[in-house]
Write a structure and sequence with these properties.
CATH architecture of the largest domain: 3-Layer(aba) Sandwich
Number of helices: 10
Number of domains: 2
Helix content: 40-55%
Structural class: alpha/beta
Distance between the termini: 26 Å
Radius of gyration: 18 Å
Strand content: 5-15%
Shape: elongated
CATH topology of the largest domain: Rossmann fold
Strand order of the largest sheet: 2-1-3-4-5
Oligomer: single chain
Largest sheet: 5 strands, parallel
Number of strands: 5
Amino acid sequence: MSDCGIVLVADRDRETRRLIEDLVARLGLESLAVDSGEAALAAVDGVAPALAVVEVELPGLSGLAVLESLHDRFGSGVPVILLSAERASPLDRAAGLMLGADDYVVKPADPTELVARIRRSLRRSGSLQSSSAGARRAEPDPGLSPREQEILALMAGGLSQPEIADQLVISSRTVATHIQRILAKLGVHSRTQALAEAFRLGLVSVM
């Protein structure tokens, strides 16, 4: 199965679409965002997307129907991440996975978690490696020190600033100083943006 290297985003909410488009761009890929199930299928008529991120509660054709249609057209190798704010119970998530979803994310999704899940699905399908490896090699080295790299890895592991200080046996103020240096070197303004950029550059791994 060949794909167009584009991530399909189908969600009613404009802000959610913009968030996912930004995260996908940070991974070096293009996205195509629509607000309905019918538009989603029309957007990939004849060519499989590298990944589809689809809201379950789409108007008209539901996200579950889009999932099934994509797999009918292109095979189950097309990874689909389902998003839902209303159908968030364990039973709902299990049903989505049983229908063939690669992942099921409850909204509102944390950007750091979402970019990790998107990256994981793309790596499983092989799309991220083939599309972004060259871009990563061309990126300048941000020049993080060993201590900054260590703190970045702990941030990616979900540790808070006080928890990082405890683990490294340094003051919370020192951790804050290192985090500010990390943000500056990565050219971002928040921890969430720093982690998204770190995942894009391959500075931290997604398990």
